[in-house]
Specification:
- It is globular and about 40 Å long.
- The chain is mainly beta and 159 residues long.
Amino acid sequence: MKPLPKSLGLLWAGMIFGCGVALAQAPEAMDPIEKRKEIVDAANWKGMETVTVELKEHSYNPESLVFKAGQPYKLIMRNSGEKKHYFTAPEFFKAIATRKVQSDKDGEIKAPYFLAIEMMPNGGQLDLYFVPVTKGKYPLYCTESDHRQQGMEGTVVIE
């Protein structure tokens, strides 16, 4: 049996032992869920940008959110409405590397990704810490009762 050429041997070793090859890829080429820890750990959290979205009957303000791939963010989600609302954006949540969701009063949750975030009424607030990875335009909507049908939808864009 002939030995593998050196370049193929190194490639094979990288595949077997995971030599960090994915970290050398452009952020949009990385799987945000699979590589969440590496992406989050490599982010410059001191340079984090803060964006606020307000949820109320029956809208998001602003209704379009725009983020830059590779830039760490804190998204403040605040429900100023009298009803509970959802920040539902499954495709967007799969396109980001999530660090955590935090409530300054109640604690934090660390998970590889979310499908929806439920916001309690009258001032409920949660902060989502994340790094956008996969560029695209993603739907945002509320899944509570008939809120989406009444216009509670928007978009999230990763440039």
